[in-house]
Specification:
It comes from Acinetobacter vivianii. This protein has 250 residues and is mostly helical. It is built from eleven helices and two strands. A two-stranded antiparallel ribbon has the order 1-2.
C-alpha cells in the first residue's frame, strides 16, 4: 500500500473520531501531520489525492474543507472503479476474493486472540441474520448480513488498519457476496455447507483458536472461489455446445 493511501486511512479515522461534518475545515497542515504521525509531504500527497477525487477541497490561503464524509470515500475511491471493472469483465471478482483471502485471514486470526464477549455476540447475531434471510428467500438481505458478519469479525480484531480496510471495502464486499450467492447459494446443499463454514469460523473465534479461525475463513473463501469458477466453466461449456448445435442445424 502506498504511503499516501495509508495517510488517507489515518485521515479518515481522525475525521470519524472527531465527528467532523461535511463543510468543516481540517486542522492546519503542521498540526494535522503531528496528529496523524506522518510527514508533511506525505500529508500533502494524500490531500492532493483526495482533492482530485472531490473528497476534499483545498482553498488557497483558507485551508482544506471536507466535501464528502468518510463513509462515502470507499464508494468513490474503491467501490465504483472496481464495480465498473467487474461489470466489464466478471473475472475481476476473483481478484476481490483473493484480496479477501489475505485480509480476512488476518482479521479472523486477531479476532480469535482479542475478541470480547460483545464482539462475539455481534458475530453470532449476524450469523443468525444470514440464516433468517436465507430461509426467507431474501438473497439481497442475506448478502448484507453476510458482509456484516465478515465486518464484525474484522472489528473484533481490534486492529484499526484492518478495520478501516474492511470498512472501506464493505460495499464492494457486499456486492461480491451477492454475486457469489446468486451462483452458489441456489443449491440448498451448498447453502447448508456455507452456513457450516461460517459456523466453523465463528466457533474458532469463540474458542480463541487463531490458526483454526484463519484456516476456516480462508477455506470458506477458497470454496466460493473454486465453486464459482466451476459454475462459470460449466456455463461456458453449455454456451459453446448451444452454438455448435445451431451451426450443425444450418
Amino acid at each position: 500500500m502506498r504511503i499516501s493511501d495509508q495517510v488517507v486511512m489515518k485521515l479518515q479515522a481522525l475525521i470519524e473520531q472527531r465527528q467532523m461534518k461535511k463543510g468543516d475545515r481540517l486542522p492546519a497542515e503542521r498540526q494535522l501531520a503531528t496528529s496523524l504521525g506522518v510527514s508533511r509531504p506525505s500529508l500533502r500527497e494524500a490531500i492532493q489525492q483526495l482533492n482530485s477525487q472531490g473528497v476534499l477541497s483545498s482553498r488557497r490561503g483558507d485551508g482544506t474543507y471536507i466535501q464528502q464524509l468518510p463513509e462515502q470515500w470507499s464508494q468513490q475511491l474503491i467501490v465504483n472503479p472496481i464495480s465498473n471493472l467487474i461489470e466489464e469483465d466478471p473475472l475481476y471478482r476473483f481478484d476481490v476474493q483473493e484480496a479477501r483471502l489475505l485480509l480476512e485471514g488476518g482479521t479472523a486470526w486477531y479476532a480469535a486472540l482479542r475478541s470480547t464477549s460483545e464482539d462475539r455476540a455481534k458475530i453470532h447475531h449476524y450469523f443468525d441474520e444470514i440464516s433468517r434471510h436465507q430461509n426467507a428467500g431474501d438473497s439481497a438481505q442475506a448478502a448484507v448480513a453476510d458482509a456484516e458478519f465478515h465486518l464484525a469479525i474484522a472489528e473484533a480484531s481490534h486492529n484499526i488498519v484492518l478495520i478501516q480496510m474492511m470498512r472501506g471495502l464493505f460495499d464492494l464486499l457486499q456486492y461480491n457476496v451477492l454475486l457469489g450467492r446468486k451462483k452458489v447459494y441456489n443449491d440448498p446443499v451448498n447453502g447448508d455447507l456455507l452456513s457450516e463454514q461460517h459456523f466453523q469460523v465463528m466457533d474458532a473465534i469463540d474458542r480463541k483458536d487463531p490458526e483454526a479461525a484463519r484456516q476456516a475463513v480462508c477455506g470458506h473463501i477458497e470454496f466460493v472461489i473454486n465453486h464459482v469458477r466451476a459454475l462459470d466453466e460449466d456455463e461456458a461449456r453449455q454456451k459453446r455446445a448451444t452454438r455448435l448445435t445451431r451451426v450443425d442445424s444450418k
